[in-house]
């Protein structure tokens, strides 16, 4: 097949970005001809298989987003703050690029808005992936955007959701939508693998040594300067280590982890960027010195070695999540995820629990927003004897391999839809 894969953003750092580049890689590996249409300025940094990248020029440099971040060379503005005319120009600029790349067997577009309108404006066969952030952060409670989303999806051959939760949110926000198909996101089970601690430590330091300079950590989208040295010092001790990786915004709940950490004999590595980092650093400053290491954003090349060094990964979101890809990635490395039990995260927890030994199933999730429950579950998890820890590592890997491999996900997204 010849596939045009449209994504309005970059290819690194956040869930839908990783999703897009992973699809490009897997479809390309499967023999399909793939062109990714996105705003990534350095696609050579990512493994896209044989896929090519085209970058549309945006009218006025305006980029509609759901969470405000810095996009060099563009003016990011919340979608709900765009005028009708600005929306129209944005859609047409992207659709024109796609039309110029036709013919194609399929246009696959990310996000209900703006993916739905862009796909529809091509006049070609198209499918849409609803990620959830557009629904919760920008569309919900805004009738004009809700209606636009529903009308745009009416012509789609299929609308994919990553979980039952997002199926329900899509119905709540847009009203009835036909041909909705549930396919969870995936994990590269060849990249995220079990690894010995000794090997992971050496490999993590080597990857951090490859990072570009970032004096004063001026670029929030780059890893913090000097991470190799900082990792070496922080991870050299024998204390248990907990990892969080994701956006640093209040809705992700990292503050709950820091609160729980106060009464645990453990340290935390906090990976990511976002406007809440300063507040999180302030909260971490109330703990004993050296208890928390902030690293800035890390790519998969770092995470595949960091996760095997961690005793647990915490996903403490207090806002609905479409799925919980970070939890599945941690599990693939044998690092037990402890997730807030709600929305798509609860579905990840259920998949893990199905593989966990019965006495340990309660360690997959904690009560949303409850720092005390998070602390108690972490304390139990970190105190497990080695035989139980080995059983959890193996169960995590089984759950991911059986349910969330990218190769299987990519194939399901191209399957016929009744």
**Count of individual helical segments:** 16
Helix fraction by DSSP (H/I, runs of at least 4): 40-55%
Mean pLDDT: 96
User: In terms of per-residue confidence, which ranges show pLDDT below 50 for 5 or more consecutive residues?
Assistant: none
- The number of distinct structural domains comes to 2
Tally of extended strands?
Answer: 15
Question: What percent of residues are in strands?
Answer: 5-15%
Structural class: alpha/beta
Shape: globular
CATH overall fold name of the largest domain:
Rossmann fold
Please report the distance between the alpha carbons of the first and last residues: 19 Å
Q: What would you give as the CATH superfamily of the largest domain?
A: Glycogen Phosphorylase B
What is the CA-atom radius of gyration, in angstroms?
21 Å
Main beta sheet, described? Answer: 7 strands, parallel
Account of the protein in words:
42% of the residues lie in helices and 15% in strands. It is an alpha/beta fold. Helix 1 crosses helix 16, helix 2 packs across helix 3 and helix 7 runs antiparallel to helix 11.
Quick rundown:
This protein is of the alpha/beta class. Helices cover 42% and strands 15% of the residues.
What attributes characterize this protein structure?
418 residues, alpha/beta, Rossmann fold, 2 domains, seven-stranded parallel sheet, six-stranded parallel sheet, 16 helices, 15 strands, 42% helix, 15% strand
């Amino acid at each position: 097949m010849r596939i045009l894969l449209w994504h309005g953003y970059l290819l690194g750092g956040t869930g839908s970005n990783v999703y897009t580049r992973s699809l490009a890689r897997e479809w390309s590996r499967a023999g399909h001809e793939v062109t990714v249409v996105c705003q990534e300025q350095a696609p050579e940094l990512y493994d896209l298989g044989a896929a090519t990248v085209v970058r549309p020029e945006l009218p006025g440099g305006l980029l509609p987003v759901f969470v405000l971040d810095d996009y060099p060379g563009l003016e990011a503005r919340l979608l709900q703050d765009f005028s009708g005319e600005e929306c129209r120009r944005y859609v047409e600029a992207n659709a024109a690029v796609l039309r110029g790349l036709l013919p194609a067997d399929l246009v696959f577009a990310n996000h209900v808005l703006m993916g739905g309108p862009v796909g529809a404006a091509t006049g070609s066969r198209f499918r849409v992936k609803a990620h959830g952030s557009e629904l919760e952060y920008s569309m919900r409670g805004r009738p004009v955007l809700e209606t636009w989303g529903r009308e745009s999806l009416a012509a789609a051959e299929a609308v994919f959701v990553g979980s039952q939760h997002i199926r329900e949110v899509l119905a709540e926000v847009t009203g009835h939508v036909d041909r909705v198909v549930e396919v969870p996101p995936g994990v590269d089970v060849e990249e995220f693998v079990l690894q010995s601690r000794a090997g992971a430590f050496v490999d993590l330091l080597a990857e951090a040594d490859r990072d570009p300079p970032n004096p004063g950590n001026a670029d929030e989208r780059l890893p913090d300067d000097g991470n190799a040295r900082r990792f070496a010092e922080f991870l050299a001790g024998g204390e248990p280590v907990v990892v969080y990786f994701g956006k640093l915004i209040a809705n992700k709940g990292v503050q709950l982890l820091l609160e729980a950490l106060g009464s645990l004999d453990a340290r935390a590595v906090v990976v990511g960027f976002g406007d809440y980092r300063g507040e999180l650093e302030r909260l971490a400053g109330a703990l004993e010195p050296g208890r928390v290491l902030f690293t800035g954003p890390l790519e998969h090349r770092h995470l595949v070695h960091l996760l095997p060094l961690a005793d647990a990964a915490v996903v403490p979101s207090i806002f609905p999540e479409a799925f919980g890809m970070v939890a599945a990635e941690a599990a693939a490395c044998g690092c037990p995820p402890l997730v807030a039990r709600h929305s798509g995260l609860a579905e990840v927890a259920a998949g893990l629990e199905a593989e966990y030994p019965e006495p340990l199933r309660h360690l997959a999730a904690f009560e949303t927003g409850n720092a005390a429950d998070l602390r108690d579950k972490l304390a139990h998890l970190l105190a497990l004897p080695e035989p139980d820890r080995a059983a959890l590592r193996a169960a995590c890997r089984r759950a991911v391999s059986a349910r969330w491999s990218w190769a299987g996900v990519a194939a399901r997204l191209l399957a016929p839809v009744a």
